Input
Amino acid sequence: MCQIVTKEFKVVGLKNKGLFEDYAELVPRAAHHFLQNANRIQHNTGIEVTVYEPKANESHAEGTFYVGLLVNEQMDTLPEGMEYLHFQHSYAMIKGKGNQISSLYSTLDRWIEDEGYERDTPKHYIVEVYHPLGNDVEDIEIHIPVKN
Output
């Protein structure tokens, strides 16, 4: 269920900021807004992603996140307000149903600790990849950066 993967991500997305405690409301709202302009993104795969700045410590209240689409290659020009992100790293990864996201994070966090891996955060971002299945159901892949 959990595994280590080395993965490359090419993303065109919209940068957002907000309080970590408000992410459950902010991220879906930002994604909805972003998707209204998704047709302007060349070379997109149609696969949605969210890229999160990890919370560094308890006093770290506000973070940055990007909502976007995976792309096959960098665009010559980006739509206004959007950014191109390209990164490759080793990640602890888990897949599951989007409605079980809290449980998936708990399982992955426990697995990372049990297997002796160490998070490589806050230097590297957490990535969620969404695969729609229809009827408002989606699979999600959660990627937490780990040290090699």
In short: Helices lie at 23-35, 101-114. The chain has one domain: 2-145.
